[in-house]
Design goal:
The complex is a heterodimer of chains A (about 250) and B (about 260). Chain A has a single domain, classed as P-loop containing nucleotide triphosphate hydrolases (Rossmann fold, 3-Layer(aba) Sandwich), CATH 3.40.50.300. Helix content of chain A is about 40%, strand content about 25%. With about 250 residues, chain A is α/β, with parallel strands linked by helices. In chain A, α4 packs across α5, α4 runs parallel beside α6 and α5 crosses α6. In chain A, β4 and β5 form a beta hairpin. Chain A has 11 helices and 10 strands. Chain B folds into 2 domains: about 160 residues, no CATH class; about 80 residues, no CATH class. Chain B has a two-stranded antiparallel ribbon. Classes of the chains: A alpha/beta (about 250), B mainly alpha (about 260). Chains A and B meet through α2, β6, α3 and α4 of A and α1 and α10 of B.
Chain lengths: ~250, ~260
């Protein structure tokens, strides 16, 4: 069963006079199954961030259809959709705005009207999933970069998101934290879309890869097949992952 | 460390102190806020020559500073600018009000001196009581208590966000001043020619960061209200704290009026 269905999605930004500029995304058709991990790759300006923002309703959908867990993307369904989708920002500092880890992780379930007991259960379960149960009362500013990333993931897990969108999750992580993040992401059962330039990271976490180029889908298929296709990657401004290029 | 880093660090330290285990920290925020507000109201209710009554009110601060193990030295260090400003209030009173009010060992105390001292003491009390509240209660808890006291949610949300965004703004300022200093070695501070651009850039970058934080809140179901909860419900001890202090403060006030 699909958690995400996208049909004929197009998007363009308007200039200050309201005139639409060239399409940033065009003719996008994607289906993501429950529990599937999809890597979203493409050179800078390919439309990855725009795509993620459209999925969360941060940008208004103008053309095409987006359905999340059967809810069509529109103003009325936005709250329900946001309970199904979790967005992990590239900069964890922007995502974590409460004083302690617990308060931040509890923020979403409280907004969805859960009782304090349910909130506590959801927050602790989310923190357990990212192995941060021992940092419940830690002040946010005292966390390391890797811990902040895991806390940011916990903030979206606590609301029970079935689809997680991660924007450049491996940026600024040292090798140990990067490996830890890969392990944790692979343990999480929900569907994931990971937008990244770190192709090795995508290789280690995703079964499927979508290559965006000029706002269109240039390739969609098995990770192994796409990330080892030097010609395809170079054609769209990318290079083989480091681990393959060394061989 | 730069002055901006110091400021950010001080804010974090305040958060940490409010969170550490302690007798005063353990009191429920609602009675704590109520008693603080009552203390402030009673402080300002004293007349300009009622110095002796005001001095008796100091018992509240002394007891809490001692029992709460709060450092007065740190208060003076952190609040030095505010306290200096507070002490400046009423400094001109002795020049205008020269009426002799009492004799102290042959020294004539004028009405101006008395009113200046009263005004300064009121300021010091207000700053100290607010500091006591902040250093023993987190912003989330204060906001929670404010909502319980039916302060409009708009005011509480603004208070909460201002506190959070101050750090965002300070961090952006720090990044920009560091980038500037690295490319302007040997220069002290920011050249006045760069002030306009600097302020403009700071505004744009802060707005950008603030927008991301806001997006993050919206994506997690934020609908205009922070649903703040307290770690525990108020118990008998908390009500007793409020009752005892209310009685003491009102007794001191009534005694002074008599």
């Amino acid at each position: 069963m699909s958690i995400l269905e996208i049909e004929n999605l197009s998007f363009s930004y308007g200039n200050p006079r309201g005139k639409l500029l060239e399409n940033v995304l065009e003719g996008i058709d994607i289906r993501v199954a429950e529990g599937e991990s999809v890597g979203l790759i493409g050179e800078n300006g390919a439309g990855k961030s725009t795509f993620l923002k459209l999925l969360t309703g941060l940008l208004t959908l103008k053309n095409g259809v987006i359905r999340v867990s059967g809810f069509a993307m529109n103003k009325e369904n936005l709250k329900a959709i946001r309970a199904e989708i979790g967005y992990v920002f590239q900069d964890s500092d922007s995502q974590l705005f409460m004083s302690t880890v617990y308060e931040d992780v509890a923020f979403a379930p409280r907004n969805y009207g859960k009782s304090e007991e349910e909130v506590r259960e959801a927050a602790l379960s989310a923190l357990r999933q990212v192995h941060m149960e021992d940092k419940v009362d830690r002040q946010i500013y005292r966390l390391s970069g890797g811990e902040k990333k895991l806390a940011a993931i916990a903030t979206v897990l606590s609301v029970g998101a079935k689809l997680m969108l991660l924007d450049e999750p491996s940026v600024a992580l040292d090798p140990k934290n990067r490996r830890n993040l890969i392990r944790i992401l692979n343990e999480l059962p929900g569907a994931k879309i990971i937008a990244s330039h770190d192709l090795d990271f995508v290789y280690d976490t995703c079964q499927r890869v979508i290559l965006l180029s000029g706002g269109r889908i240039a390739a969609d298929g098995e990770t192994e097949k796409i990330l080892t296709d030097r010609e395809l990657l170079e054609q769209h401004g990318l290079e083989l992952p480091l681990s393959f290029s060394r061989e | 460390m730069s002055r901006i880093s110091d400021a950010i660090s001080e804010l974090h330290k305040l958060d940490m102190e409010a969170d550490k285990p302690g007798w005063l920290q353990g009191i429920h925020p609602l009675p704590k806020l109520f008693v603080t507000v009552l203390f402030l109201v009673i402080t300002v209710s004293f007349g300009k020559y009622e110095l002796s009554g005001l001095l008796k009110l100091g018992i509240y601060l002394i007891v809490l500073f001692v029992l709460g193990d709060i450092s007065v030295k740190l208060l003076l260090k952190r609040m030095k600018v505010v306290l200096a400003l507070v002490c400046l209030m009423g400094i001109v009173n002795p020049f205008f009000d020269r009426r002799e009010m009492l004799l102290l060992g042959g020294f004539a105390v004028t009405g101006g001196m008395l009113s200046a001292a009263t005004l300064m003491l009121k300021g010091v009390y207000a700053v100290s009581a607010s500091y006591l509240l902040i250093v023993t209660t987190s912003v989330e808890e204060i906001c929670y208590a404010l909502r319980r006291l039916h302060v409009p949610k708009l005011i509480v949300t603004v208070l909460m966000l201002v506190y959070r965004y101050i750090i965002v703004l300070l961090k952006e300022t720090e990044r920009m001043t560091e980038a500037y200093a690295l490319r302007a070695p040997g220069q002290r501070g920011l050249d006045y020619k760069a002030w306009g651009t600097f302020a403009g850039q700071l505004l744009l970058r802060s707005m950008d960061r603030a927008q991301t934080v806001y997006d993050s809140m919206m994506l997690r179901g934020y609908d205009g209200e922070f649903y703040l909860r307290c770690k525990r419900a108020a118990g008998r001890g908390d009500y007793l704290y409020a009752a005892v202090w209310s009685a003491v403060l009102l007794f001191v006030r009534a005694g002074s009026a008599g």
